[in-house]
TrEMBL record:
SMART domains: Ami_2. It catalyses: Hydrolyzes the link between N-acetylmuramoyl residues and L-amino acid residues in certain cell-wall glycopeptides. Residues 98-240 form the N-acetylmuramoyl-L-alanine amidase domain. Keywords: Cell wall biogenesis/degradation, Hydrolase. This is N-acetylmuramoyl-L-alanine amidase. CDD domains: PGRP (cd06583). GO terms for biological process: cell wall organization; peptidoglycan catabolic process; peptidoglycan turnover. It comes from Riemerella columbipharyngis. Its EC number is 3.5.1.28. It is an enzyme of class 3 (hydrolase).
Length: 344
């Protein structure tokens, strides 16, 4: 029903078949009729002289060096051309040259991986994400099979992030890959607190494998593997505190996590801050600034306002899942400072 991994595999195979062939023969065989007129003399002088220059993988055309590269080499960020891009370009009356000169001046648009839960069951997740004006690149179901669904081409925008911010970036739909996970989200208990649903291990392993693949192919740094709640902390809670970010870091080397030794170094002074300065405007501003510098969208108001509480809660959902009330305690404060030191 929707494109799956097979399509990606086919594309990669085609990429392997397509290889670049910029050769002396192919370019020199261009017709350059030598008629004895001034115009044709000009034509002759403009004929490209191509000299293979094997060292450094360069060829020389009209005395200019071009890189001769293999477009199948997806590990190179700076000189690949997508197979889809080549075959779909179709200017009327013209053709896209089969001789490609991939520029080194390029990079991937994909800079972030954003994790979500759907807060819907399997069927409704598929229905909403494929038939409404909300989407994600990938949907990870809640079944112990080997399938991951691709709903949107990786090179296109999907509508998953909404109004969002992280560090110097806004509107992360423009430059992120969105992964939706089938998970019911949370219910409110009798005291009005959110009770989140866990992620089965088989489902988490699928998500982790997908993140690993994407992070490798697009060279996405740990600081840019985030939850929806990190980039929209006043609006969103997903993927929630049950998403095992620590396991993702420990078992797969993906995303951010703090070093325990660093937190221990901070904990005494952090405790002192909480005991003696908790309501000091200067201290509150310091905490807000640290959250902002780490990446969150937050205003420096010097008060424990509603939005600040939501940002702290989002931080706790990700990095301190055993305490998620949105109130800064010594441990949350120590973790924030440790993470900032490690990933600033
Ligand atoms: Zn979301």
């Amino acid at each position: 029903m929707f494109p799956n991994k097979k399509n990606t595999n086919t594309m990669h195979k085609n990429l392997l078949i397509i290889g670049l062939s910029i050769t002396l023969t192919s370019c020199a065989s261009r017709p350059t009729t030598a008629v004895n007129t001034k115009k044709s003399t000009l034509l002759v002088t403009q004929t490209k002289k191509i000299t293979p220059k094997k060292e450094n993988n360069l060829i020389k055309i009209d005395n200019i060096d071009f890189y001769q590269v293999n477009i199948a080499d997806l590990s190179k960020n700076n000189n690949t051309i997508s197979y889809g891009s080549i075959v779909s370009a179709n200017p009327q009356g013209y053709s896209i040259s089969k001789e490609h000169f991939p520029s080194v001046g390029q990079n991937f648009r994909e800079r972030f991986i954003i994790i979500h839960y759907t807060a819907l069951d399997y069927e409704k997740s598929i229905k909403v994400l494929t038939q409404k004006n909300v989407s994600a690149h990938y949907l990870v179901n809640d079944r112990p099979d080997k399938e991951i669904y691709q709903l949107v081409d990786e090179n296109k925008r999907s509508y998953h992030a909404g109004v969002s911010h992280w560090r110097n970036f806004d509107n992360l739909n423009d430059n992120s890959i969105g992964i939706e996970i089938v998970n019911s989200g949370f219910v409110l208990n009798s005291s009005g607190q959110r009770q989140f649903f866990p992620y089965p291990d088989y489902q988490f392993r699928k998500v982790a494998a997908l993140i690993k693949d994407l992070a490798t192919r697009y060279m996405i740094p740990p600081t840019n593997i985030l939850g929806h709640s990190d980039i929209a902390p006043t609006r969103k809670q997903d993927p929630g505190p049950m998403f095992p970010w620590k396991k993702l870091y420990d078992d797969y080397g993906l995303g951010m996590w703090y070093d325990t030794s660093s937190v221990q170094n901070y904990i005494t002074i952090s405790n002192d801050d909480i005991v003696h300065q908790y309501n000091s405007p200067a201290f509150i501003a310091k905490v807000q600034k640290k959250l902002k510098d780490f990446g969150y969208a937050i205003n420096i108001t010097s008060t424990w306002d509603k939005d600040t509480k939501k940002v702290i809660q989002s931080f706790q959902y990700h990095f301190h899942p055993s305490k998620t009330d949105g109130v800064l305690d010594a441990e949350t404060w120590a973790i924030l400072q440790s993470l900032y030191d490690k990933y600033k």
